[in-house]
Specification:
Elements lengths: L1 E7 L2 E6 L10 E9 L2 H7 L9 E2 L3 E9 L11 E4 L9 H4 L26 E4 L2 H4 E3 L6 H4 L5 H11 L7 E5 L3 H12 L4 E5 L3 H10 L3 E3 L6 H8 L5 E6 L4 H10 E9 L24 E4 L6 H12 L9 E6 L3 H10 L6 E5 L1
Parallel strand pairs: 9-10, 9-12, 10-11, 12-13, 13-14, 15-16
Antiparallel strand pairs: 1-2, 1-4, 3-5, 3-7, 3-16, 5-6, 6-8
Amino acid sequence: MKTFVMKSLDQVGFMDKPIPKAGPNDAIVKTTKALICTSDSHTVHGAIGPRENLTLGHEAVGVVHEVGSEVKIFKRGDRVVVGAITPDWGELASQAGHPSQSGTALGGWKFANLKDGVFAEYFHVNEADANMALIPRDVADEAAVYCCDMMTTGFMAAENGDVPIGGAVAVFALGSVGLMAVAGARLRGAGLIIGVDSIAKRGELAKSYGADVIVDFSKEDPVARIMELTGGRGVDCAIEALGSEVSFQNAMKVTKPGGTVSNVGYHGKGDLVGIPRLDWGVGMAEKSIRTGLCPGGRLRMERMLTLLQSGRVDPTKMTTHTFPFDQLDKAFAVMDKKLDGIIKPLITF
């Protein structure tokens, strides 16, 4: 089969690999649609260390090609969505309520990290009954593929932020995760949602997902503007969706005492992330910092699919580009360099 791989640091390309085989509890999925994530770029540029000929990608849907002898829920021909995070559900961290960290920190993140990813004509899914979900007939692949990561991660940001009904939320960076954090904050009942970004198209999309105000950090101080918008009180929850030390610190600055900084940004550079000491109340302002890695699992995927069925959210508005699989190298370059106003590129197989 054809795959798209990280050959080495800063090097990508196509290569042929054998079609994987399913173990007793596993499945092999024939890929139909996939999405490129910014974290794929982070990986290629060394954020998690060197990799050699590792198949990239962690967001894909497809049709079941093979199931292991112990798989009970799925059969060949089923149309499925697979979470970007595929934990070992019997592992101790999973039993303690932290499946994304099974085995080690970020251990639930296997695709394009600990094993080959989904940018291939076929891909392997461990613990298939727990890590896949059936796609309803009335949900298109193009929408379902957003359940793998962008929707579940963005909504987690709002959930971890404990957004109160009628409360104020600031979302720093309106990429696809930030946009879904806006949608999640709206679903949670936020009364004021402030998006922070400098790209007009992202701001327009954020408003369509529920943002009330867009602050362009290239034209004004986002901290001062957010404090003005909240009458000097600050927000109940600030969501960092970029992975930037500056935006993390700004999130801390605008969060009111007793509020929450919800970090879903991928901090892929540097050894330390600084906390502004005084804005943190010298450590005693009761400002919580919550972090999380994309929630996975069949139950989570089924809940995401329900939101698509009910029309609560339409993630396909974020799809700005479409490429066939044999042009994934071109798609990756456009995404890596953020060219042509790209937000999310869809890959068709």
